[in-house]
Amino acid sequence: MRTIGELVEISRVETVVRLDSDQGCLPELVLTGDVVGSLSAVLSAAEVRGGVGGAFFVVGPFGSGKSHFLAALGELLSDPAGSDLSGWEPGLQDLAKQSGPMLAVRVPLVEYRAKATLEDVVAARA
To answer: For the segment 2-14, what is each residue's pLDDT rounded down to a tens digit?
Structure first.
């Protein structure tokens, strides 16, 4: 009789996405309706603002994919022309290609005390 280990290959998967690492999250991003809507909002704002800074709040429950979304977005905005967007709908591809490149400042807030001001933390990381 075979063991489960002989039948199944288990891939090593990072269960926590850190914003300050280069994990290659963009190819793993699942384009649900919510994700497409959020990407469209951010990319449209980036296009309209013409390279001027902006901000968004990303809200969701624990484990909903906020960090994964932000890490993938950072990868995309850093190099939109070099990103593989072959599975994306054409309108979203166009928004992505027109949006950058931009400096994505990765700020893992778990490394800072609650008393630190967000402005100081972002400035230090930038």
So the answer is: 898 888 887 776 6
